[in-house]
Amino acid sequence: TPPDGDADHLPAEHTRTGASWKALFRAPYVVALGVALRLTATLTDLVGAGRWDRVTRIRHGLALGGLAMAAAGAAGAAVVGPPVLRLVFGAEIDLTASQSAAVAAGTLLAVATLGLSLVQITTGHGARIPSGWLAAVVVGAVTLVLCPFDPLDDIVAAFLAAEVAAFALMARRHADHPV
């Protein structure tokens, strides 16, 4: 519960901290959106040429690479995330090592999920994407409601839970429906 006892409002320091981590950790996703255009063209060309072996390799690379990136990013963010946030946004920004790790992992899983979604779209399975994202939103919402932590910890946990669910569902759907 926030210090003022009002559970409906986050304290100002949580709002500033949340906005700061979103600004810093969402940068990889913004960069990935630019790369997504090139990946879409590549996948479309491969599908058109019937190069399903290459599409499958890209899909596997996105899934395994996403897991590896999330693990490495979480480890790195646990060490450098808090001091970098304070350096960039000021001393009042106080994200813990575990919060930084969770946000980094979630962000990098979101990048991989974007790639897996593009594989689904270019291989004609795009209709499955909205239900996967809706399920991930439900996972995030349930996590947010059930978390007994500090409000900022609840938000970080819900973000990570939603991104893990989205990644798992997109990766799983590929396993169920190979290209």
Model description:
This protein has helices at about 10-25, 25-50, 50-90, 95-120, 130-145, 150-175. The chain contains six helices and no strands. The protein starts with 11 loop residues before the first helix and ends with a helix. With about 180 residues, the protein is mostly helical.
Record the SSE blueprint.
Layout: H1 12-25, H2 27-48, H3 52-89, H4 97-122, H5 129-146, H6 151-176
Helix pairs in contact: 2-4, 3-4, 4-6, 5-6
Q: Outline the low-pLDDT stretches.
A: 1-7
Major beta sheet, specifics?
none
Q: What is the residue-mean pLDDT, rounded to a whole number?
A: 84
What is the tally of beta strands?
Answer: 0
Number of discrete helical segments: 6
Q: In whole angstroms, how far apart are the ends?
A: 48 Å
> Which percent band covers the strand fraction?
under 5%
**Which structural category do the helix and sheet elements fall into?**
mainly alpha
The outline comes out as globular
Report helical residue fraction: over 70%
Give the H and E element order: HHHHHH
Q: Radius of gyration, Cα only, in angstroms?
A: 18 Å
